[in-house]
Design goal:
The chain is α/β, with parallel strands linked by helices and about 500 residues long. It has two domains: about 5-280 and about 425-485, Alkaline Phosphatase, subunit A; about 285-420, no CATH class. The protein contains 15 helices and 23 strands. Strands 1, 2, 5, 6, 7, 8, 9, 21, 22 and 23 form a ten-stranded mixed sheet that branches. A four-stranded antiparallel sheet has the order 14-15-17-16. α8 runs antiparallel to α9 and α9 runs antiparallel to α10 (about 245-260).
Length: about 500
């Protein structure tokens, strides 16, 4: 049983009606939340003792977009046709575009629940801008919202209500890739405080069956401060003035979590989740610099200073492949009949792709040592491939290195991010904590994936899942464990 609902929440929530509350912490890292900083998170520890907890495997690639959409739809990136924040507009152009809610062609939890007559309150969940007019409930859109002047609330009149109570909407941390760390830390806290305050406001006043919020502060903290509090980072300095920034922020998040749990009555199941984790970024691989040096990318003029890919003078008639930067690389072949100025004959695509895949995986570190890069062809990892996928999804150093898309350094390896200071890459596992009615206190659970969350929520609310929905309900996994404890070898209690 969770904490009783607060008085304000009790005035709205009718007892005896099953509800689900999801609190999302973007990029929250298991080794911190469950181990290193666990002592600073008493509310999360109590929740863990009441239910299940463990790693939550992310998508390939482990990126905010599409991972959160996979979580709330049960789809994978191939089914969505969404492979990152920016996706190619189509094979008729070489241009990329940002993924918005209009890119999502599958129903998400609030769509399915709305069709079943259930009401949702959805706050700050990535890839929700623009908010759907058909939503049954309320929504505040995500950090990809163009700005506070946009129509970021549904119903529309909610915007004025929240602005009057909390001031202009802080859509995201401004300029989070910066050397001004004091200003950055203040901005992260300012955003999170506003968002959690808005969440309490909505929990107290809305009649909801499903509540979900996502805080982006954890992600911004990791990218901005990882080297200050993680000893395995090459630039970590013991005793630096920001060494406690990580622990203090996780402790702050736990206090905010406690205020939300006051609105979770005995009939509310609570899930605390993240879309992926975080890890030390060793450096960057200049993917287009490498493609240029190996004859795949052709330029009319080679710059003598780092230049973003969009500003390069590309000779498409001689280009065989190009790549995109980010926490992973998307590499596209330039194929005849498919791409505007394609040069690779269609019958040679498989051969070229396999050769490029092997060469990328063999890129060593700056000392010539293997780094363990993994390059995937989408058709090899997704049962269905929609949209305009990259020909290769490249995880440099299996996420120890990022992809740098700019050209002009004259070298493959870099230890400076071309979009600003960034200490961390994403890691494969996020966090999962779940407790409440219908969730037995079985302790640590292994093998959960982000796609399992949607089916779990629907089962908790007794709403049938669409036949096409992927993933497996965590409740079904737990039933297997209850029948045969050997199914899951670790049944630890939190420390």
């Amino acid at each position: 049983m969770l904490a009783p609902a607060s008085r304000a929440g009790s005035e709205v929530l009718a007892m005896g009606r099953r509800r689900v509350m999801i609190i999302g912490l973007d990029c929250a890292e298991p080794s911190l939340a469950f181990d290193r900083f666990a002592g600073a998170m008493p509310n999360l520890r109590r929740l863990r003792k009441r239910g299940i907890w463990g790693p939550l495997r992310s998508t390939i690639p482990p990126i905010t977009v599409p991972a959160w959409t996979c979580m709330v739809s049960g789809s994978d990136p191939g089914e969505l046709g969404i492979y990152g924040f920016r996706n190619r507009k189509g094979y008729g152009t070489y241009e990329m575009d940002f993924a918005t809610s209009k890119s999502v062609r599958v129903p998400r939890l609030w769509d399915i629940l709305g069709d079943a007559g259930r009401t949702s309150t959805v706050l700050f969940v990535p890839q929700t801008y623009p908010a759907p007019a058909s939503l049954r409930g309320s929504m505040v859109t995500c950090f990809l919202t163009p700005g506070p002047e946009s129509e970021w609330a549904r119903p529309p009149e909610l915007k004025a209500t929240l602005e009057a109570a909390f001031g202009p909407y802080i859509v995201d941390v401004p300029d989070f890739r910066t050397d001004d760390k004091r200003r950055l830390l203040q901005s992260i806290y300012a955003m999170s405080r506003q968002h959690f305050a808005m969440a309490r406001h909505m929990l107290a006043r809305e009649d909801w069956d499903f509540f979900m919020m996502v805080d982006m502060g954890t992600d911004r903290l990791h990218h901005g401060f990882w080297k200050y509090f993680n000893p395995d980072h090459p630039q970590y300095v013991p005793g630096n003035p920001l060494e406690d920034a990580g622990r203090e922020y996780y402790a702050y998040l736990d206090r905010e979590l406690g205020t939300l749990l006051e609105y979770a009555d005995a009939d509310t199941a609570v899930l605390v989740v993240s879309d992926h984790g975080a890890r030390t970024m060793r450096g960057g691989i200049c993917v287009n610099e490498w493609l240029l040096q190996h004859g795949y990318l052709a330029l009319r003029t080679v710059p003598d200073a780092p230049t973003p890919f969009a500003k390069l003078e590309i000779d498409w008639s001689r280009t065989k492949a190009w790549g995109e930067g980010g926490y992973y690389a998307r590499v596209f072949l330039n194929v005849q009949g498919r791409d505007p100025q394609g040069m690779i004959p269609p019958d040679q695509v498989d051969t070229e792709c396999r050769a490029l895949q092997a060469m990328l995986e063999a890129i060593p570190d700056e000392h010539g040592k293997p780094i363990g890069t993994v390059a995937h062809r989408p058709a090899d990892i997704y049962p269905v491939v929609r949209g305009t996928p990259p020909d290769l999804i490249v995880l440099f150093g299996n996420l120890a290195w990022r992809s740098v898309g700019s050209v002009g350094r004259g070298r493959i390896h870099t230890f400076e991010n071309d979009t600003g200071p960034d200490d961390a890459n994403h890691a494969w596992d996020g966090i999962l904590v779940a407790a409440g009615p219908g969730i037995p206190a079985l302790g640590r659970l292994e093998g959960a994936e982000v796609r399992d969350v949607a089916r779990t929520v629907l089962q908790l609310l007794d709403v049938p899942a669409p036949a096409t929905m992927g993933g497996r309900s965590l409740l079904d996994r737990l039933a297997d464990i209850a029948a045969d404890p050997a199914v899951d070898g670790r049944r630890d209690s939190p420390p």
